[in-house]
Amino acid sequence: MSLILALDFGGTKLAAAIAHAGSQEWLGYERRLSPANADASTDLEIMRSLIHALLQGEKPTAIGVSFGGPVDANTGTVRLSHHVPGWENIPLRQLLAEEYGVAVGVDNDANVAALGEYRYGAGVGYDSLFYITVSTGVGGGWILNGKPWRGAEGMAGEIGHMVVDPAGPVCLCGKRGCVERLASGPYMALDVREILLNEPQRRRGRGGEILRGLVNGNLELITGKVVSEAAVQGDELAQEILHRSAWALGVGIGNVANLINPQRFVLGGSVTKAGEGYWQVIRQVAQQTALPEINFEVVPAGLGDDAPLWGAVALALDTVEAS
Fold first, then answer.
1. If you compute the radius of gyration of the chain from its CA atoms, what whole number of angstroms results?
2. What is the pLDDT of residues 209-232, one digit of tens each?
3. Cβ-based neighbours of 128, under 8 Å, separated by 6 or more
4. Pairing state of beta strands 62-67 and 3-9?
């Protein structure tokens, strides 16, 4: 029976898993956080150790790789990582193929997760969907007419850098008011920290107190997850920032619905676990932004955090079939 090795190079975590072709259960699963001072070499060394622990000397039939950054899927070359230095123009497919002697497929994490949701998750039974991941960054991946659609040079789906507020704060990419700048976990945390540091008078009362309590007053410990937890507990500042995040995503989704008209929007990533109020804002704003004649659903990822790994399984199987 074919043994598939799935790898996920995320912005802050590295994960590897093995499964039999045709199965939907992991035979083994390993995960590790990427160290704070990581570069491409340390990430590759950690991934090799995860692979070694999983394979125990066995040889996989094929390898599928989800990478958190722009990838040339045709050549399997990583263009760069926005979060880990040293990944510029790394021929990842070639490296792995030479090391393990099997067929390898490599693609951007959002494209791979879209494929995973289409084959095994919330996209089963649908032939057009747009997958959006909202975590360290915001990315998107397309399935159109039952096949991945990457665009002319593999850059389709970059909803994170759709501008929804031209007067908004500056994003890492240099533009103002991108979806990612308003909706991603690290940026939500950054904005909350700056407000708590610079506007203490405005934050008297309930706004910010729960946030401060969750991190024992150490504002450096505030993350997107902390913001979400504080919002659920009723912190007004956290709710305000989370509402803005959901609004930005909703505007982006409504515009994409107008442009491409997919059946489903499937949302995954850590920020999407922020509670029902967050989802209500996204759905409401998306419907208000889209034309009333356009029908679509906005649903949570069926595979949760494993969407990129299961997509890597599907990518590996497709790579074997194509070779």
1. 20
2. 899 999 998 999 999 999 999 998
3. 143, 144, 145, 260, 261, 262, 263, 264
4. parallel
Residues 6 or more apart in contact with residue 26 via CB below 8 angstroms: 17, 18, 19
Closest CA to 60 of 32, 93, 96: 96
Across the chain, what does the average pLDDT equal? Answer: 93
Query: Where would I find the H helices in 125-214?
Result: 179-183, 185-198, 209-214
Amino acid at 125: G
Could you give the CA distance from residue 298 to residue 190 in angstroms, rounded to a whole number?
Answer: 27
β-pair partners for 130: 142, 265
Nearest of 140, 48, 62 to residue 106 by alpha carbon: 62
Give the three-state DSSP class for 314.
helix
- 128 with 144: CB under 8 angstroms? yes
Q: What is the pLDDT of residues 21-38, one digit of tens each?
A: 988 999 999 999 988 888
The H or E element containing residue 251 is helix 236-260
166-183 b/e (C-beta count within 10 Å ≥ 16 → b): eebeebbeeeebbbbbbb
β-pairing verdict for 71-72 and 77-78: antiparallel
- The predicted model gives 283-303 an average pLDDT of 97
- The one-letter amino acid code at 41 reads S
Q: List beta partners, residue 259.
A: none
SS3 105: strand
Task: Report helix, strand or coil for 310.
Answer: helix
Do the Cβ atoms of 278 and 244 come closer than 8 Å? no
Residue with tokens 């799935």, as numbered in its chain = 6
Whole-Å CA distances, 131 to 12, 37, 94, 142, 255: 20, 30, 27, 6, 15
Dihedral (CA of 119, 123, 125, 127) sign: negative
Rounded average pLDDT over 122-151: 94
| Per-residue pLDDT reduced to its tens digit, 95-127 | 999 999 999 999 999 999 999 999 999 999 999
